[in-house]
Amino acid sequence: MNEKKHIIDVEDFCDELNLQRLHCDVSEFTLLDTGINRPGLQFHGYYEYFDEKRIQIVGKVEISYLMSLPADVRAKRIDEFFRCDFPCLIVCWDLSDADLFLEAAVKYNRILLRAKEKTSTFIYHLMDYIDLVTAPSTTMHGVLVEVHGVGVLITGASGIGKSETAIELIQRGSNLIADDMVDIACYHGRTLIGTAPEMLRYYMEVRGIGIIDVSTLYGAKSVKQAVEIDLMIKLENWNDKSPYDRLGLDEETTDILGVQIPLVTVPVSSGRNLAIIIETAAINARMKALGIRSAEIFCDSVTRNNQELYEQAEQKKQKTEQEQITRKEREHEEELADRAETLAQSEEFNDQETEKKQ
Amino acid sequence: MITKEITLNNRSGLHAKPASTFVRAANKFHSEIFISKDSVKANAKSIMGVIILAVQQGDTIVLEAEGDDEQEAIESLTELIDSKFGIEAEA
Asked: Is the pTM of this model over 0.80?
């Protein structure tokens, strides 16, 4: 349940959802609870647990139940219900029975609307609409571009070269969504959609040139109205002491409206082509989303290679040791043989000596 | 970080030319400077952001600065606004 107060513009609400106004004399209403309620139980007289701050949806079930009641009871139940301070009541299926509520709606001055769609379809569209208009939003300083299909929010201090980088990206085929101020809304609690404030849309300020209109200078293909933000790139002045990521194994993220967005910090120094770095970061982010992580694959292969080298070295060591042992054994055997020969010779010599003496 | 509330008195508010003077002045400082009106906050160093605030005569804005020269930044910008941007640029 969303506790925040939301103002719903009746005209936009009716246009978007194709609603007919049966009774409504205000231009906007306040929504305190973004949920919906089907008031079947309330028509039966149960009010102990009742979300009266929700939009009330009436379909065939409720109408059928009310029609089954005797006329006086029905009028009493409807009157009782309209005494509650609900934001609005919508009758679906384009039912003419909606007129049942007209008298009470006028009496208590409640908004009564009629939808053409069937109840479940209408509820789906209503929830989608409410989600859009009540999405939490914020404004950030930066440039939003779509690079190879990836929504990239470029941030960084003033004068670091965000707009200049964006122009190069646009020339290389990216789309500009917003320069300088980016309106960001969080839909369904997980999708960040960035747009430009209406007045600034497709305008860009480039130091030295002034304000330019990207859509006329570079054509319709260079701009886009909205994009989902997939990646944030923070440009910062090159600092020799700052330990920049050299591998890309640690994935930094940043929080925007409660959604974690991958963050890449790119150091700026002369001679670095930021547009190309950003394009590479964008494609890399897309690969990561697809499950292909270059840095991890690289590190794994380095580890594997080291392991192989170690094993080879171990084998070689063992082989050398074995050879040494064999050689020693052979030497030992040779020595024994030599000694035996010498002994045999000396014995022969002794024998000869003895023979001579005799 | 320091913040300061100021009311604009020059006739055309912070329209293009005064905005440009203001942004140029803000860019002389190292500090991060923001200007906000109601709930909208813009970077004071960016002309687009300042223009979109559409500050009118009599509007109260909040200046916010953070950095090593924040004090000077706020003082200098306040002076600029109070002096109606040196010249009444709205002729």
From this structure: no
